[in-house]
Amino acid sequence: MTKQKIGWQAQENGLYHLSGALERDTVPAFWQQRHEWMPQDSAVQLDLAAVGRIDSAGMVMLLHVYQQLSLNGAELKILNVPEQLVTLLRLSHVESMLAACIE
């Protein structure tokens, strides 16, 4: 069985594509490399269409991305949010934190 990885692809105009599995086995190593991929744009659109699986570690990572971007004065919009993430946010009672970001 091949271990899934997280893919991060920057497009133009602040559009980024996240892919793979956002889970406890993949998030820690990806997060440690955030200085290489963290957006510096003032407006960021994060497309999750290619995210195959997300668990609570992936949800927390996205909350931290939102927090980091906010601290830098950037605006975040999350596109193509998987239903699995919506459910995790709701069950964790943190949906309000990302509600304004989700399109």
UniProtKB/TrEMBL annotation:
Coiled coil: none annotated. InterPro entries: MlaB-like_STAS (IPR058548), MlaB_ABC_Transporter (IPR052746), STAS_dom (IPR002645), STAS_dom_sf (IPR036513). Gene3D superfamilies: STAS domain. It comes from the Bacteria. Pfam families: STAS_2. Residues 15-103 form the STAS domain. PROSITE patterns: STAS. This is STAS domain-containing protein. It comes from Photobacterium pectinilyticum. The lineage of its organism: Bacteria, Pseudomonadati, Pseudomonadota, Gammaproteobacteria, Vibrionales.
